[in-house]
Amino acid sequence: SLGTAGLHIDVVRAPEQVAEVVELLQSHQTLSLGCVDGRNIWLADLDALNKVVASVTSKIGAERLQLAPSCSLLHVPYDTADEDKLDPRVLSWLSFAQQKVEELVQLAKGPELAAAAFAENRRRHEDRRAAESSTNKSVREQLTKLSEGDFRRRSPYKQRVLVQRQELGLPLLPTTTIGSFPQTQEVRKQRAAHKKGAITDAEYNDFLKQKTEECIREQEQIGLDVLVHGEFERNDMVEYRGSLKRNARPGRNGSFALRHCQDACFEYFGQPSFTRYVQSGSPDCLLLAVFHGRIEGLGRKRPRSRSNFIAHSVPSSSSHRCARPLGHVYAGCRAFERR
After folding, report:
1. Which of 65, 114, 177, 232 keeps 20 to 30 A from 134, CA to CA?
2. Is the confidence at residue 41, as pLDDT, over 80?
């Protein structure tokens, strides 16, 4: 009824719509089946997708069917061949833009003409399922013990906001600033020297505490209500966070970014490995992290990060304690402390 020559649907996000769309599709329209995930860096399941393709083909015919990624491929890196520092086993489980196009070609050929590709795809999926990082018994046991109460706040907002007002003592419209202060040449020089081993941890921490104290005192002089510590201890936001995770390995570009932080709430459970640039929801290009097992650096038992060390030590060790809330800002989340 739209008068279009064809229609594209995202089968990854809404597989339940396929039957209805096929039923409503007009006889002159073609259907673009977005079956390969354009927001994900894992191998497609060719066997599972082939069933969907075969079902649609039987109803509208191959001549009216086009196979496509679910969305633009700008959210994934270009080619796994560009990666030379990833674990080869983990790399075999991945599918970047080039591989996703190849998967579409294999799907179009079908399991008979592309028998070898389907068999290899099947083998890689089985390998990933059998991997130790994919079969963590501790995680599975924890998941079975989750109850409805684990997904709810311990107290309602009306109760929490009263406690927050009392503890923080903020005005109705508190003033603050972005958590990241400029990464000056001096900061970058000291970070590079520390990374090369030219200065010790103690010397680097002293430098960070000095810069952080300068940042906090400047905000106090301006008269801000909620202060930030400036985040001088980190380089790229997510590279720094990922470096706190156990077994993190730097890759070809030495940095990474958590993918899907725009449309998911950090759905990552695993070791980070570092890969190539991808485009985020903004014009920025970020580096991608691959988590293929349980993250060991999260939760209440995680080791104290340099961010927490710097943020806690500066106000208490300076000549006069910071009497205002100090906000810690990472990846869109803010936590306040009374210092």
Report:
1. 114
2. yes
